[in-house]
């Protein structure tokens, strides 16, 4: 008889590097490990929403490559951002047509940052698409997203590994970070310096939550990929998949979660 362990999966943000989450999910699914609750920030929230709505990880990769999300963004005439995200709302609706958390096949929590109150907010009920947009709204790059007269930006600003919505409701929590920084011996321009500093800040609030995870998967060296490096999608997916296979080989106890719940998506 199958046990009914509740498995939570927390997914970090990281732009295109978040495609690694799909590789991680595929590797877990290939070993009969199916999380039955997810949470995510930014790219992790988007990957989680598509998965929770019933799309297979490999199918989501094809959707990302085919649509090239970034080409839909348009300039903003604003002091708060250089691009508007509103146009991508219809793109999300194409693949998540029932725009509400309650319609998902697996429960999902999405982290976003309330920019005026300076606090993280977790969305898990009601309309889904606007919170997804808010969670992935990079400050300075995009205009903040308005929801109920409040303004939100990227969830990763304050919480890039939102384990809190899973804590207390799951028997096991698997955390996944897609921003591992390799040692860098040649930081020779301002762009590299800024990118590395931002990732270090994001990772600090990831690692502060690492101890809340029963398992923590972090594919190596993903920070070498740019936030918008969509042409590397397949390589990033493969990195997530292969890193998870290695993790499972080195941490056999995670296999105790296999077949612990009925597969939730078809």
Molecular structure report:
This protein is α/β, with parallel strands linked by helices. Helices cover 31% and strands 18% of the residues. It contains seven helices and eleven strands. The strands form two sheets. Strands 1, 2, 5, 6, 8, 9, 10 and 11 form an eight-stranded mixed β-sheet that branches. Strand 1, helix 1 (20-30) and strand 2 form a beta-alpha-beta unit. Mean pLDDT is 87; it is low at 72-82 and 260-266.
Topology:
Blueprint: E1 7-11, H1 20-30, E2 37-41, H2 43-52, H3 57-67, E3 74-75, E4 81-84, H4 88-95, E5 108-114, E6 119-123, H5 129-135, E7 140-142, E8 145-147, E9 150-154, E10 172-176, H6 190-207, E11 215-217, H7 233-250
Parallel strand pairs: 1-2, 1-10, 2-5, 4-7, 10-11
Antiparallel strand pairs: 3-4, 5-6, 5-9, 8-9
Helix pairs in contact: 1-3, 1-7
List its salient traits.
266 residues; alpha/beta; Cytosolic phospholipase A2 catalytic domain; 8-stranded mixed β-sheet; 3-stranded mixed β-sheet; 7 helices; 31% helix; 18% strand; globular; disordered C terminus
């Amino acid at each position: 008889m199958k046990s009914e362990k509740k498995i939570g999966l927390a997914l970090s943000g990281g732009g295109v590097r978040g495609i690694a989450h799909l590789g991680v999910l595929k590797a877990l699914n290939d070993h009969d490990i199916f999380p039955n609750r997810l949470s995510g920030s930014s790219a992790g929230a988007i990957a989680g929403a598509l998965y929770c709505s019933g799309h297979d990880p490999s199918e989501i990769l094809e959707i990302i490559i085919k649509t090239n999300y970034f080409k839909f963004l348009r300039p903003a005439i604003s002091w708060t951002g250089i691009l508007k995200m509103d146009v991508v709302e219809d793109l999300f609706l194409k693949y998540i047509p029932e725009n509400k958390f309650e319609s998902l096949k697996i429960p999902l929590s999405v982290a976003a940052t309330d920019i005026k109150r300076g606090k993280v907010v977790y969305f898990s009920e009601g309309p889904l698409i606007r919170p997804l947009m808010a969670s992935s709204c990079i400050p300075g790059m995009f205009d903040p997203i308005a929801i109920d007269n409040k303004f939100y930006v990227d969830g990763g600003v304050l919480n890039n590994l939102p384990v809190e919505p899973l804590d207390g409701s799951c028997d096991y929590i698997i955390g996944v970070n897609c921003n591992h920084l390799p040692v860098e011996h040649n930081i020779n321009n301002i762009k590299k310096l800024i990118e590395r500093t931002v990732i270090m800040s994001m990772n600090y609030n990831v690692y502060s939550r690492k101890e809340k995870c029963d398992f923590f998967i972090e594919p190596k060296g993903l920070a070498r990929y740019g936030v918008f490096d969509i042409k590397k999608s397949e390589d990033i997916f493969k990195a997530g998949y292969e890193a998870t296979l290695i993790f499972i080989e080195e941490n056999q106890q995670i296999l105790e979660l296999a077949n612990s719940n009925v597969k939730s998506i078809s």
